[in-house]
Amino acid sequence: MSMPSTAAQIIVSIIPIVGIVMGCIIIFFYLMWDYKLKTYMIQNNIYEKKRIDLDTFSLMTGLLLFTLGIALMVFFIVKDGFSYGALSGLIPASIGLSMLLFVIIRFLTKSVK
């Protein structure tokens, strides 16, 4: 087996670092401009706070995490058998299931009132 050149190894190791730095810069400027926009809107009395629909957010996130976890578990069980690799799917599946249970419990408590 031939080893890749030193220059190729350096380039491959720099790519994730550059990606993370660029992502951080984009997030920084987004947060800064959003802050400036909100302060401008508050000063001019045109700001309306956005309400988060917790039920819809929890349902969407729960479904995404649960299906992602199930897919990862099936993949790793097929690939390696039942081993520690299956935990990489069990964790998001259990988080997604708990969020779905939250939505169900919240719906049931709202309908009782």
Structural commentary:
By secondary structure, this protein is an all-alpha fold. The protein folds into 2 domains: 50 residues; 54 residues. It is 81% helix and 0% strand. It contains 3 helices and no strands. Helix 2 packs antiparallel against helix 3. It is flat. The N and C termini lie far apart (70 Å).
Supply database-style keywords.
113 residues, mainly alpha, 2 domains, 3 helices, 0% strand, flat
- From the helix content, strand content and strand pairing, which structural class follows? mainly alpha
Shape: flat
Q: What radius of gyration results from the CA coordinates?
A: 23 Å
For the report, how would you describe the main beta sheet? Answer: none
SSE sequence, one letter per element: HHH
Portion of residues within helices: over 70%
Distance between the termini: 70 Å
Q: How many domains make up the coordinates?
A: 2
Number of strands: 0
Task: Write a brief caption for the model.
With 113 residues, the chain is mainly α.
Topology:
Elements: H1 6-43, H2 54-80, H3 87-112
Helix pairs in contact: 2-3
